[in-house]
């Protein structure tokens, strides 16, 4: 009887579901593994584009070329700076708006919510947005990466739902002690909302790190191009001539463009992948608490 209790019969559905999930994981992870393996492969092997589970001949020549390219390293710096400043500004501004919208005594609260909802459902379009950025002086300006993304309605709703779960007695006791609304927000509400802050920070950081579109539309100066935009141009326009010339000068041979592309992809992807596991445990908690209790 005891042995029967330890082992239960596995149903056909569970077997099929497990196999399906394994297939989905393989389809999701293998492209990244393919790029990683070919970035470490010898250049002549990467040029063939064959399917390998492990590098046939190890080589770091492609990574040396990538890290020696000043433009790519400058793009890495711009992307990092944009991600840090943009994420901090988005979390701060969205939290301030959400705190005000979560208060039931806010005058005109329903009207503000309807206006904010419109911004989520409809967009002005590319040309009006481009003209607006130009009139604001943000064209070919670093702050075009930060200011337009300081607020999103969806993240505000997540913040607002979470703020409603904080007991009002904490806020009332703080106000009795003489705290202002900003004092309540920064001393009481935000310190008790680290889970949702981590969640929104992850959403915003991933967006800023992966975005290439704004660099394509609004940036013309080479020194302001983020890494993802440069990678997009490398892949779309096949503009590898300069980096290949560097490879010829450094290694005395022509380094294939495919090898440099794979190495560039890994340099652009690994930092955000390394950041994600440290904040993943907050992700489900931050979203679900606001969704369930809100």
Q: Can you give a write-up of this model?
A:
The structure is a single chain. The chain is mostly helical and 294 residues long. The chain has one domain (60-293): MetI-like fold (Orthogonal Bundle), CATH 1.10.3720.10. The mean pLDDT is 77. Helices cover 73% and strands 0% of the residues. The chain is globular, with a radius of gyration of 25 Å. It has helices spanning 2-6, 12-40, 43-48, 61-68, 70-101, 109-121, 126-135, 153-163, 168-176, 181-189, 194-210, 213-218, 227-237, 241-251, 257-293. The longest helix is centred in the C-terminal third of the chain and has 37 residues, at 257-293. The two termini are 46 Å apart.
What's the rounded overall pLDDT mean?
Answer: 77
Give the C-alpha Rg: 25 Å
Percent strand equals: under 5%
Our count of helices gives 15
Gross morphology is globular
Q: Spell out the CATH superfamily.
A: MetI-like
CATH topology grouping: MetI-like fold
- Counting structural domains, the number is 1
Number of strands: 0
Into which percent range does the helicity of residues fall? over 70%
Q: Report the biggest beta sheet as strand number plus sense, adding barrel if it closes.
A: none
Distance between the termini: 46 Å
- Could you spell the SSE succession in H and E letters? HHHHHHHHHHHHHHH
Global structural class: mainly alpha
CATH class: Mainly Alpha
């Amino acid at each position: 009887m005891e042995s029967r209790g330890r082992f239960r019969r596995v149903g056909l559905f569970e077997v099929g579901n497990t196999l399906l999930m394994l297939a989905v994981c393989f389809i999701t992870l293998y492209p990244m593994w393919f790029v990683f393996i070919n970035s470490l492969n010898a250049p002549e092997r990467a040029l063939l584009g064959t399917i390998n589970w492990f590098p046939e001949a190890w080589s770091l020549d492609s990574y040396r070329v990538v890290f020696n390219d000043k433009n790519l390293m400058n793009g890495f710096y711009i992307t990092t700076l944009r991600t840090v400043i943009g994420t901090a500004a988005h979390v701060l501004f969205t939290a301030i708006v959400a705190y005000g919208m979560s208060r039931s005594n806010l005058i005109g609260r329903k009207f503000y919510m309807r206006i904010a909802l419109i911004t989520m459902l409809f967009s002005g379009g590319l040309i009006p947005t481009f003209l607006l950025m130009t009139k604001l002086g943000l064209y070919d300006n670093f702050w075009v990466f930060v200011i337009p993304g300081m607020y999103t309605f969806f993240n505000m709703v997540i913040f607002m739902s979470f703020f409603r779960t904080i007991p009002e007695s904490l806020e009332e006791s703080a106000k009795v002690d003489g705290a202002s609304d900003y004092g309540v927000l920064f001393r009481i509400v935000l310190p008790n909302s680290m889970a949702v802050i981590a969640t929104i920070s992850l959403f915003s950081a991933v967006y800023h790190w992966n975005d290439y579109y704004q660099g394509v539309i609004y940036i013309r100066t080479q020194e302001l191009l983020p890494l993802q935009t440069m990678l997009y141009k490398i892949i779309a326009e096949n503009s590898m001539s300069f980096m290949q010339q560097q490879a010829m000068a450094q290694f005395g041979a022509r380094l294939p463009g495919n090898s440099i592309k794979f190495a560039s992809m890994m340099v652009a992807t690994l930092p955000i992948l390394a950041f994600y596991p440290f904040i993943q445990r907050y992700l489900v908690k931050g979203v679900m608490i606001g969704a369930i209790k809100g």
